[in-house]
Amino acid sequence: MSTSHTHMDEPVRAVTRRPLGRAAAVASGALATVLVGVSVPVTGLLAQYPLLSGQAIRYAIGALALYVWLRGSGRRLRRPSRRDLLGLAGMIGAGMLGFNAAQLTAQRYAEPGFVAAVLGGGPLILALLAPALRGRRPALGVVLGALVVVFGVVVLSGGGSWHGPGLLLSILTLLGEVTFTLSGAGVTERLGIVETCVLACGAAAVIGAVLSTVSAGPAAWPIPTVTQIVALLVLGVLVTAVAFCCWYVCVSAVGADRAGILSGLMPLSGLVTSVLLNAQTLTVLSIVGALLVGAGCAIGLRGKT
Hints:
The protein is mainly alpha-helical and 305 residues long. It contains 13 helices and no strands. Helix 6 packs antiparallel against helix 7 (140-157). The two termini are 30 Å apart. The model is unreliable at 1-17 (pLDDT under 50).
């Protein structure tokens, strides 16, 4: 890695190398989850574009943006070890390509509210599993906060129904979300946050492109419309490059268990976006659910990391 330092590089290094204060780290994680939540309507703009091809383009844009940022800060990619490759495989296979495929397919067999309700279990799984993987006991406050968030998400989403493989696909989506956080936590500690995201996004872009081409041939690569191009740029830059880095900044600072609680903000931000777009009506139940999610986040993020 380059050891050159310039005054202009300091903000970038501060965000991706130096530990942030607790408040800044939580804000970073909240920004990441909000960006993912509000991306739902944007993703819908790609409904008529081949799934894997769209994902490949999105991740290629994210990888390019992050690589330019990385080189601009005077740093270079580090070669991952075998242990890192295992973590990257979990991020890419389950947390990125697998998560998106499972989520979109699940919505064919289950109402969006049901998928969101199942995803709401993520904070509780991370609250229990993340410390266990490090040989620690789960923090009572974090578990309690996660339970409140889970309940809030269920109320917020309205539950919903499913048929056929809807339940299985929703559970796979949940596992993909959890795997993304747990698999990437160790890799980012060893290789760096931006470096890890560049490698993961670059590999996901290549794998997605190959799978799409093999499955559909030339038909997998139609010329996107102007609307689809805008959607791909937003997903690639904001929801991939920015959100991924912000998320792991939070995970590295407060731990995967506490950071996981913030994932409850995804359906909340999705609700706010839908209401602003007149796609959904604000109800008393959704307000109660939002308040519960907020209370759960406050409970779970209290105390020392």
